Amino acid sequence: MKKEKNLKRQNRGHLSELPAQKYRLGGVWLNVLPDDLWLRISTGESVWEALQNTDVELESDCGGMGTCGKCKIKVLSEIGPPSTQERELLNEWELNQGIRLACRTRVFRDMVISTTEAEREEEYLKILTTSHHLTHRYIPTPELAPLISKQRLTLSPDIQQDGLSDLDAIKLGLGSEYNDLKAPLNCLHSLPQKLKKTQSRGTAVLHEHCLLDWQTQDKADSRYGLVFDLGTSTLVGKLFSFADGSEVAVASCLNSQSRRGADVISRLKFIREHPEGLESLRRLVVNDLNQLTSHLLSSAGLHLEDIFIAVAAGNTTMQHILLGLSPVGIAEAPFSPVLTDGLVVNAREVGLRLHPSALLYVMPVKSGYIGGDLLSFMLTSGVTEQEDEIILGLDLGTNGEIFLGSGKRLLTCSTAAGPALEGARISHGMIAKAGAIEGVSFEEGELHYRVIGNIKPKGICGSGLVDLVAVLLCCGIIDQEGLIRPPQQGVAEGLHSRIINQAGVNDFLIASPEESYDSRPVYLTQKDVRELQLAKGAIAAGIKTLMDKIGIGTQDIGHVYLAGALGNYVAPYSTIRIGLLPAVNLEIVRSLGNAASTGASLILLVKRYWQTAAELAQFIEHVELSNRADFNQYFIKHMDFPEESLQPDSIATKQTA
Amino acid sequence: MKKEKNLKRQNRGHLSELPAQKYRLGGVWLNVLPDDLWLRISTGESVWEALQNTDVELESDCGGMGTCGKCKIKVLSEIGPPSTQERELLNEWELNQGIRLACRTRVFRDMVISTTEAEREEEYLKILTTSHHLTHRYIPTPELAPLISKQRLTLSPDIQQDGLSDLDAIKLGLGSEYNDLKAPLNCLHSLPQKLKKTQSRGTAVLHEHCLLDWQTQDKADSRYGLVFDLGTSTLVGKLFSFADGSEVAVASCLNSQSRRGADVISRLKFIREHPEGLESLRRLVVNDLNQLTSHLLSSAGLHLEDIFIAVAAGNTTMQHILLGLSPVGIAEAPFSPVLTDGLVVNAREVGLRLHPSALLYVMPVKSGYIGGDLLSFMLTSGVTEQEDEIILGLDLGTNGEIFLGSGKRLLTCSTAAGPALEGARISHGMIAKAGAIEGVSFEEGELHYRVIGNIKPKGICGSGLVDLVAVLLCCGIIDQEGLIRPPQQGVAEGLHSRIINQAGVNDFLIASPEESYDSRPVYLTQKDVRELQLAKGAIAAGIKTLMDKIGIGTQDIGHVYLAGALGNYVAPYSTIRIGLLPAVNLEIVRSLGNAASTGASLILLVKRYWQTAAELAQFIEHVELSNRADFNQYFIKHMDFPEESLQPDSIATKQTA
Ligand code: FES
Ligand code: FES
């Protein structure tokens, strides 16, 4: 207890200069396939009610009374017995398939449903990797200063008597601060009719000293903005309300560019080799973003015309492609991006379907390899606002991006951690989507898995992998050098049957055919452990190199923040147990959720962060690891797992701490 | 002589704070129909040579040697006898028609030619009203500060080693002053290829702190810009060189919107009554401007991509239409334009075909009735830079726009002068185009006409009308009340045969069928004189009202500047003689040419004038005449012509003074 208290005080101190952190609580997530809509709904709400405000349409003759039997959905998560009405209206086969009536299905835990009967694998790919676990940096309402503001105005009729221009009438209404008010052409095009229609009682939509639109007065409180996380594999869109800074809706989809290459390197190759390559990739991502937008807006009952602002963050290549800028310079000497500055453009110019005057902010970057996503992460961590405390940040995706430092000095490096941490190159690895084991614990002699969407497991994602290896290390099934050992007496005997010797090498059976989603066994192979060792070794070596360069030891690290596909869900203890993180106090490790979108949302909600991001890009120092002898030595040294003599039983406690 | 000297000193004093005035001398104008190209060429140059740099193509097999007989043109101006080669290669009928060989025709006086044999009336409409008389405000080279600048740069290869972005490399090349350099998306799109192609030795095209393009180094000296005068009836485009501020080419055409109404009022009506009316008028003017641009550029051997800037000035309605902004508010209470501020937009956004990054500056206006054309005129007059001297400006077109004052206080008013001054509502009136009598003098008992294009007269334009009435007043043929009197003994007896009594009213025969272009007589009717009296009475009353309001007399006026269709060409003496101007000293009256385009060119060439124009719009005070008793009384009083006892013989001298 005492320790907890200390921690809290410490945290409060740390955050004193930052907006307070707050984890959104209450409610459960409903993931609606194939649209991959993620809805935050009240516990116990029916699926029918939850879908009322979305553009997902269910058939119905009875209007949700449970009598027509038409509002069929397929529940993919574990589900209790059917209701009497469902037994009457659905046949046996349907009930066994998980078919239920939306109006009779109440949601008490996170749930995945499909609104189409045919469950196509392709549709399953469109899965949210991030928002089933939502922790974003909370901004107290008084600190909100969104990029877009609205002012309800009644233009005095006197003002209009003497041939005053429409724009000048609005300037007068806004007061002398807006003497230099400007307006883009498309706002001016519709201004006279709109003023007439509203009889000069309306709402001015403002971006700095620029009028974007004139709306009816009832629109004054409809203030929303979007952020986009331009991930290489997954795109995430979030809708924020400016009234209280809350996240209203989240949607994500697989980045359609994946068809042209799974990673940045293969997409750069595609662009170099195809004359229209850049334009085709640009169109793919723009289409994806437009679809996300349409999901987000319909789930909140909004229209395209209601959105005047979006902020996008991604790696340098993704941001370049979105803007139609050639990223090929990033891949070749002298490794020049076209642009590192942040850019504010008309959203329509880029192809985004929002209000015609809407603006798109695209994050600044440091270089071709330090993108807007990493800067967003730094913003989210509050490191720029810390003078005295050293913060370590890890963005654990395909690359491991690391930063270490404070507002005084901030270093970054990039390690080619390899795709293992995203579940790739792992026998039964998968990205963090419904069906992926995302967490593992060992309690009372048995393994327990947390599976995304509460369905039976299909495979394992990065966070599950790290957890599992940590558990097996604790159980003594994996040794310090990474070997999966044959069953040993006295060591986790309940798991002995899961150690399978195949051609002289031991693999670990995570789920038997009976336990798995598609009746195929799920293994952790010896090779998988080796992949993980490579990945975690590179990251640990990167951290150590930065620590040396800044001249600190493990004890000097004040906070550790995790982000990225893995970083969001991994148990802090596991990262320390496998030696990915140095042996810091567990309590200083925190996941920042989807840090790219959170950083972008900070800018959306508090405009001064745009300037902070630009300064940050100038401020940070990049450390190139590839040619450093110290890094290579640390890398070899950190391939092994650290010694630790924790008893398996204590792991569960640690992991829920 | 002494007087001249005084005048010069006085002028220099007046201009001490202004760029010096300079009238372009040397060379002659060649007007090429049906393209209506106006070329300023060296005296004695052949038509063939003159057309080499244009996009007008002549047939030829001999390459201008005078042997193939294919380069036929029709000379509309007076022309001397054909050359021997022409006699051999052309037949009698052709020679009589004015057909000549371009390569054998040398131009010694302003000349109008047609490159098509069929002379269609429609093509004749495309006539320049302004530039056959070119007096623009000259800006000394050291004072040039054009809206667009270019800098030849060699980006150091060192700079490129460390992953610097393309834009940052250019920032470094430009020096610390350009730390905040921005670039529009379409510039960034092509930047990497262009940097590669030029091997980082190139030319930065800059608009303030914005990079518009990266060109090859040889483009560094190709610096040009356009101005557009958006006249209700005529559009004028001018191409300026930023190297020395000189006017490189001029083109004009009838405003195609005239098909939808001759004046502003009828176009506003068209827009109100047709849902697509605004868009169709906008397209018409944009097409016209694109055609003018293409003429201007081809005559200077330039391409669309060479032009990064255009400045447009017109009345408020014309500017609104060009921008696609509804002007209907201007016509109805509360007489609100959409916008009075000056606007800088991407030229392509408006539909102008220039470089994709090119900008269009559209002049600020004061109100629906005081447009960018009048502000341009004020800028041109230098009134804003005058603290002590009162300047009177008259823009004499369909409306008479008047300003009076100095940099301390500046009043304007608008008089519905009526269309007489533009040659409309006059029996044989026409706008100032080839065939219009634009000047009249009386020497040695005979009338002499100056006809635009040096052809036989077809009619009379505003300046000719004012001149003619002034002459007839001096001759005693028109009396103080405006009556054309029957022949009187001892009064201009050489003209007696021209006074024709028709149904009890006297008309004046300006040109007999033999003297006229199309064998039809050209008259000045009694009714025409009445129209002129109405127009000049309104203007004179407007001037007097402003003088009263500012509290000055005629002797306090330091300079009088004339602009507009009429103001450009009218003889100052005539304006005083008919009482349009108060009886100021003749030497202080000066025509400022096409003041709308000159004001726009000041902004193009010296960017601080953009700010000046904005301040001017705020500064000027408008005096509404329609409800003022004093104006109405002055109007009635000034319908008559002033008494004066000048002898006819002295008129010629006065007019050439
Ligand atoms: S809507 Fe009719 S049963 Fe659900
Ligand atoms: S070009 Fe052959 S005669 Fe003129």
Describe this structure in words.
The structure is a homodimer of 657-residue chains. The first copy, chain A, has 657 residues and is of the alpha/beta class. In chain A, the strands form 5 sheets. Chain A has an 11-stranded mixed sheet, sandwiched between helices. In chain A, strands 25-24-15-16-17-26 form a 6-stranded mixed sheet, sandwiched between helices. The first copy, chain A, has a 3-stranded antiparallel sheet with strand order 6-7-8, covered by helices on one side. In chain A, β7 (201-207) and β8 form a beta hairpin. Chain A is globular, with a radius of gyration of 26 Å. The N and C termini of chain A lie close together (12 Å). Residues 1-25, 118-136 and 645-657 of chain A have low confidence and may be disordered. Chain A binds chain B through residues 160-169, 182-183, 185, 188-189, 191-193, 323-326, 328-329, 334-341, 343, 345, 349-350, 367-369, and chain B through 160-169, 182-183, 185, 188-189, 191-193, 323-326, 328-329, 334-341, 343, 345, 349-350, 367-369. The complex binds FE2/S2 (inorganic) cluster (2 copies). One FE2/S2 (inorganic) cluster is lined by residues 60, 62, 64, 66-71, 101-103 of chain A.
